[in-house]
Amino acid sequence: MENTTNNKEIERKFLIKELPVLSNIEYHMIEQAYLCTSPIVRVRREDNSYYMTYKAKGFLEREEYNLPLDAQSYSHLSAKADGNVITKKRYLIPYSSYMIELDIFEGIFQGLILAEVEFRSTVEADAFVPPDWFGDEVTYDKRYHNSYLSMKGSSFYENS
């Protein structure tokens, strides 16, 4: 990962109706802990990379800043997390000119599966036609933000 990155994140988020075949798809193991949810400050381990992220408020579009960490710093900060530490397997699935990030949650949120697709502009995001295996869009439903999940139990989405 580069040093500090500053991005405007534009993404749509979906539930999944039916999983695609994942046997030959690349994935990453992710663990993330939230130090604060307003504003959003999280630390993440993605395989053997570590970083801290600040995310501004928003749904479809928001500012995001990443700072690199080492394993020791990650361990120290993640121990100070508020709420649940989120663990998930993230599959990277090419689709047209996009990369679908398919998250299969583990631990307390086992059974939850979400797909995110990032875009270069809101016009592009609005024009996106999801694949047939996507379910309902939850971009504007705060219950499916990882920061919200970090403060909740698994039962909230089981009855949604």
Question: Could you name the key traits of this structure?
Answer:
mainly beta; 160 residues; eight-stranded antiparallel beta barrel; Hypothetical Protein Pfu-838710-001; single chain; 4 helices
Description of the molecule:
The protein has a single domain, classed as Hypothetical Protein Pfu-838710-001. Helices cover 14% and strands 46% of the residues. It is built from four helices and nine strands. Strands 1-5-4-3-2-6-7-8 form an eight-stranded antiparallel beta barrel.
Count of the separate structural domains: 1
Shape by Cα distribution: globular
Cα(first) to Cα(last) distance is 36 Å
What's the total count of β strands?
A: 9
Helical fraction: 10-25%
What is the CATH class? Mainly Beta
Mean pLDDT: 91
Strand order of the largest sheet: 1-5-4-3-2-6-7-8
